[in-house]
Write a structure and sequence with these properties.
Helix content: 55-70%
Strand content: under 5%
Order of helices and strands: HEHHEEHHHHHHHHHHH
Strand order of the largest sheet: 1-3-2
Shape: elongated
Number of strands: 3
Distance between the termini: 124 Å
Amino acid sequence: MDADKETVRQFLQTYPKKTLDLDVLQDAFASWDYSRFRPAVAALLADGSLIAVRSAGVDFSGLPRRLKRVPAKLFSSVTTIQTEAIQLALSEKLDFSFYYEQPLTVWQADLPYIRKLSAWLSQGLPQGPASLQQRSWDIFADEKYLLEKGAGLLKRLGLTTADLGICDQPDPLMMAIFFSLNRCSMARRTQVSAISRLSWQTRPEAAFLMMPGSMNSWPGTSSLSSARRQANAMKKPSSIGTRERKYGPAILI
């Protein structure tokens, strides 16, 4: 019967929901007759791995028609994790309930990082917030750990970045790029402002030459003299316009 009990336990460990109907469980072991199935389920009810949902009633033999899984009893790793947490004096701020429902290998893989995090928490939070990279270095001696795998570790342990005194700060490289672009933008605005203060009536050719991209924007302006000619051409009114202003529009006969 113990072997049958452990077989049912293994099925329940991988079952994705907290509760299940007795019919679902019985269908999973359809090859067993009821005289074999019932003692295995009853044994799991007796040791607390399963709890009856009383509102669902019972079947003809007294087994609950609906059952609730108890991960802390279903997984043998619970005792191991709790024992190691006490022996290693792991911080009480850490929640290990996630690992109770996982194979023991998951706990063992995370344990080195859990110990580092626990040791840091035991020292008390330092005064003042820090960036994610800085805090990652403080705890794990790896500034990228919390940016990558460490985010999942915090979630599994029931922690947030706020619990570690982490504030949102931009990456130093991005800050350098931002300030560099900002300086370029300010320099360009200063140049445009200087151009706007020039008198187009007195020295338009100088303004043309100071404009960014003026040599490309104005074909033929390869020198100051050519820029002066084009500027004067734009400033000088056409002969037709002068005649019309002086004599009025021409009348065709």
